[in-house]
Amino acid sequence: MADRIAKLALGTVQFGLGYGIANQRGQVPPDEVREILAHAHDAGVRTLDTAIAYGESERVLGESMPPQHAFRVVTKLPANTRGDEVDARLSESYARLGVTPYAVLLHDVATFRREPAVLQALAEHRARGGTARIGVSFYRPQDLEDVLRSGAPIDLVQVPFSVVDRRFEPLLPELRARGVEVHARSVFLQGLLTLPAERVPTRLEAILPTLRALGRVAADLDATPIEIALAFVLSHGGIDAAVVGVDGVDHLREHLRTAARRFDVGAVEDATRGLPLDDERILLPTNWS
Question: How does DSSP classify residue 77?
Fold first, then answer.
């Protein structure tokens, strides 16, 4: 149980912005952020995921983390960062956070394509002890393959990965062999997998058959679709952390209960084998609008 809870990474975009298709509360108030972080830390969660682009998230985290905490923070540089701006941007970020992050990522591979010197600047920052790991947040497997073939000095990546999105799965063994840590985001497809059918926007109705199939799988395993979606990622051997956002303490407790529940890993894998999609109009929220 402790290993699965430690594998949870708390996404913090909701601490700085109103975010997520299923989010009906908007930005989480700072007082509740402090309660969420304290509860998560007491439960054994050790990774926080944030970004400079997440509105006030870094500042709120810096003002809200428990004293003498053991959180590892992963943050991300904005897409428009140049190589000669890395140190200044990170100095400001670290001041807001009040900690030295465990990892710093490029928020999008487009930054690397435009200016590969950004990753080299990050590697030099890492060599000086400014962070333990560096990498990139990806959206498409081909982009990850291109960066790996380039020889870029990455040792942590963040990728969308869920019970319906396994596009990166063929690359996970190579990442493991290279010692690259893998953090999964969009575990609930930005909340889309948690919506009842009547709340799914018309432009995303193509996912309804998959949501119905996920519901049947969950019922067969005496679980909820949310539990199956999270259990699938937490039990996957190629994933080191599952990034999940919360909009309140009760939401966090739900995720902790799921992480603590003992599922038959083989049964979950077998039951969900037919769920993956390859339609990027659905799998990439950037295409939803």
Answer: E
